[in-house]
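Quick note —
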Amino acid sequence: MRRTGASVLNVKESKASERTVVVADLPVDLNDQLVTTLVKIHFEDTDNGGGVVEDVTYPTRTKGVAYVTFKEKTVAENVVRKKKHSLAGMAGSAQLIVSHFSEKIFSSVKAVLDLSVFRSQIRLESLVMDLKREIPTLCFSPLEANGRISVQGTFLAIEKLKESLLLKASFLLENSRNRQSPRGSTRRSSHSLKPPRSLTPETTKRGESLVLDTDTFLYLKKRTKFYESTLRRFHVLCQETVDGEITTLCIKNAQGGSQSNNEKKVKESIEKYSHILHFELRKETFILEGKEDREKENIKLACERLSLNYLQVLVNFYKTHIDVIGSPPDTYLFKKEVMELIRQKVR
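Predicted structure written out below.
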């Protein structure tokens, strides 16, 4: 059975969440019904660790992502434990990414890009078409006249997008310099937007750059000792730029040119640790927007009070909502106690 357009919230709030897995990197160029059928067949095959599939939710708000709910919790655990999954009849396709629903801190993030910096080098419409072909799992809004465009997809896809744009910018800059050089005509030239992989983006020449999900980064910084201790141990400075759901770190050596390799070591360490957190954390959100002032205040007070007891839970207060980030058991208990404090039942 398929529930077209079902939201992440509906799956998360149901009692079936422990029996539900997230399946990412599904082919986006196939008919929705065909993908649903292939997914159901794959996860009912016992050779894949599968069993009786109760429901397949596809398509969802995120391209290439489905939610599969099994009749038994143990089956969900088995398919996650089996590392390699690929759909029958899809030889050569990318390996599917399967994880427990409760393990994901998010399934989709949104970023706003300003592509106007490319306007003098290439038609922005061509650039967007190139990006769509390169990363088909991303959703792009219509390109605005000022060069801004909204992009939505998994964090890993957004990260790949940023890396691609950095490479394109560096490649265009190199071409521009070659044209200005008297010897430029003897060098290679191309109108392609696909630069060689060995090309280093200009921004990384002055340090190492790392893109992280903001929720994961905030938890890393505020609820673990790893982040600050790593910076101190390798004697590096880190400039943090938060842009909505994306945070960019610029890592630079605090001791000038000496021990320049420390920047790369710190980047690799933080990247590895944040990747672990990304799959261990869960996020619960209390929506404040649209509620009466008294109800908003009750939710805020309850969260503030409980945050003193849950030291491994990060509570982020925003104008329109409150995010609670931590391990699945901690965030569930936190939400349950908040609802009890404001005299409501957990759904």
